[in-house]
Structure formats: C-alpha cells, structure tokens
Amino acid sequence: MNFAASRIREQIAGILRSWKMNPKLIDTTAEVMVDTDLAGIDSHGISMLILYEERYLEGTLKLEGEPRVVRENAVTALIDAGGGLGHPAGVLAMRMAIEKAEANGVGVVSVTNSNHFGAAGNYAKMAAERGLIGLVTSNAKTSCVVPTRSRKAMFGTNPIAIAVPARRNPPFLLDMATSTVAANKVRVYEFHRKPIPDGWVVDENGQSVNDSSVAMDYIFRREMGGLTPIGGKPEMSSHKGYGLAMVAQILGGTLGGGAFWALREHRGITGKQPDNLGHFCLVIDPKAFRPDGSFEDDMDDIIDLMHGAPAIDPALPVLVAGDPEYQARERRLKEGIPVPAALIEKIRGICQRGGASFLLDSAHAVGSGG
User: Fold this and answer.
1) pLDDT for 209-235, tens place per residue?
2) Could you list the residue range(s) of the whole structural domain that residue 242 is in?
3) 4 with 52, same domain?
C-alpha cells in the first residue's frame, strides 16, 4: 500500500514518542526519515525502525539526551550525539558546517557517540541547497562487508555522499554505500521475497548468494561471508570499494573518536556496547575560489552534457547522480510512499510493543478515500 508522506511522518513520530525520545528531536528525526523514503531510498527510511527498536530495547540507543558541541573553532567543531539516533546530530553538524563555510569558505564538523543517521545524502544536499558543496561520510556498526581477499566481514556499509549545486539543474547528489549494496536493501528484497543479484553477497568461500533470506543470514548472523565492497569481486576491482570503506571509517569514525567495531571485536570487547558511530561533514563555498555563480554555470554545462550523451537505449537516457531520487520524490509526493505488506506488519508489532497508535491501515492508504 502507498501512504502520504505526512502519514508516514506521523507514524514515525508516534513510535519515537512511545520510546520517550527527547521531544525536541522527534520532528527532525521523522522529517529526515520521511525525506529518505520520498527519495526512493526505502532501505533507510521507515524500515529502519526495526533496527532502532532492537537497539532501544537492548539499551544501547539513548533517546533522552540531545547533541552538544564539545569542541569548536572558526572552521571546525566536534559534536557529541549523546548516544542517540544520528539524525538530529547530523542535521546540527551540517548546519554548523554550512555556517562556518559561509563565513570562512570551508566548514568541517564531526560527530561522535552517535547511532545510525539514515542516508548520508540527506545531509550533503543541505549544503547544495545553500549553494555550497557538501561532503558527508559515516562509519557503521555491523561488520557485514568483506574486504578484498578476506573470508570475514570487517566493515559496515560506510556511506559517502557529495552534493554539488548548479543553477538551472537540481544539484548533483551522489549518495552511496561503499559496499556493492546497502545491507538494508537486501532486507527490502527479503520483504518482497525476491532473489538478489550475483555479487551483492558472498559466502565463506567467496561465492555469490542469491536467496535473499540466506543472504540476510550471512550479513547479520554468520561469522564468515557478507556483503562485497564496491566492485564485488577482486577481478572487478573490489579493492577500490574496500579502500573507500577505509576512507569513510577514518574520516567518519576515527577522526572524531568514533568506534571501529571490528577492532572492538578483535580486542575482545563484548556485551551490549553503545554504538559510538561517527559522522563527518565537510562544506566548501565555491565563492572562495571563483566569482559568484560561475561554478554553478559550469556545473549546469557538465550536467547538460551528461544528459545529452548518446544513450545505448533511447528509452533509457543517461542520468546524473541524484536524478533517480528527484524523480522518485516527484512521483511519491503524488502517489504516496509504497510500504510492503511485510514491513507494515512489522510496524504494527512495533506499535503494539511500544504503545504507539498504528496508523498504516488500509483505510488511510493513498487512493482509499480515507
């Protein structure tokens, strides 16, 4: 069923309230999550409530506090997220980085002691909407990505996003996991009971796993095997994805004092530990390098050139990073956000356990008349 963005937002906010999240942070968190679903990134929107509930119930997700600045100068800052969800800290970090870049040409803000913060592109595009270049990275908790030549997963999906403004065109917006695919995208395939493509997930012998349920087992429960880095196989240059995962860990996590979960495991640190994830926001003002507007004009020319490149199939024109998300947003604002039946039932269970009202019933689906 499809639901209006306002309905999804209300459902997310209701669940967060039932978990006693700091009221100051609920709207920001729900807005970022809905924005992700509107962009067609189903792996990082309302479906993430399943993981968030697990962390909340085990006590490693702290929802009562709020982010605070612990170190700052004219161009840099460090934010402590208080052990809570990363969305409010990510928004605060990007806002601070934007302000510093507008004042000084560049702004760099790191976040530590955080949790999952959704899609990195949500924060990068905040800069582009102000005419600035935004670069965002983050590390991740679950060791589910297998380094090139390894049998054992060592990294999270460690995203990197960059948003660049243009004048006539929507911003260039690249938002990618450094794994071949995000772990939660495999979960979405499992919801729909669809097989996954070759090269997304490998077993302990480096062989592709296609059954989405078995793949989820390798990602989240088995010691060996897991997601592949970008490239998939060594012969397809998976070392490049592996290297990018390291970059995201170093900038997103290690720079600000965030954890590297594989290292914790190596050191024998066990038990329920706070995630202590890190996020990294870099903002650059093009006006620090060029006359006002000239950079954006060149970006328009580049984007137009890419769009005009001869297509192999005329029915499938060449796209630029961000195009699918902008198209999805336009479509979903009209038609609603699709939520698969399996996810609806999981959300129903979350509401029952937390005491929140369940709002995703058929009477309120788009087109139902409700």
Assistant:
1) 999 999 999 999 998 999 999 999 889
2) 67-180+228-300
3) yes
